[in-house]
Amino acid sequence: MMSKNRITRTVFVVWAWSLVSALGFPVEAEKRRPYFTSQLGRRPPELVSRDEHWINAKKKLTLRQLHGQVIWLEFNF
After folding, report:
1. In 3-state terms, the chain is what percent helix, strand and coil (to 5)?
2. For 24, left (φ over 0), alpha (ψ -120 to 50), or beta?
3. What letter does residue 28 receive in the DSSP assignment?
4. For the CA atoms of 28, 32, 38, 44, what is the dihedral angle to 10 degrees?
5. Reduced to 3 states, what is the DSSP secondary structure of residue 45?
6. Strands, E, within 1-77: which ranges?
7. Model confidence pLDDT, tens digit, residues 1-52
8. For residues 54 and 61, what is the distance between their CA atoms, to the nearest angstrom?
């Protein structure tokens, strides 16, 4: 039978290892990948859709046609 001290130490080591595993090992900031990349100053990609996805439009519109207008984009995932 294991002693109480050894059981306590084993439980602590397992708890500490699971905490480090869950949080991840520290990585230098330069090596971390960003969650997003900035699109400032870049031209947005064209909207890819079919003609029937556009409401109140006979055919799909390009970004050039929408330039300067307020539009509503709805994403359904």
Report:
1. 35, 0, 65
2. left
3. -
4. 160
5. coil
6. none
7. 567 788 888 888 888 888 777 676 665 655 666 667 777 888 888 877 776 7
8. 8
Tell me if 50 sits within 8 A of 43, measured CB to CB: no
| Phi–psi pair at 56, nearest 5 degrees | 65, 35
**Does the predicted model carry a pTM greater than 0.70?**
no
Task: Give me 66's structure tokens.
Answer: 């929408």
Torsion of CA 11, 16, 19, 24, to 10 degrees: -140
Count CB neighbours of 54 within 10 A: 13
Place of tokens 């300067």: 68
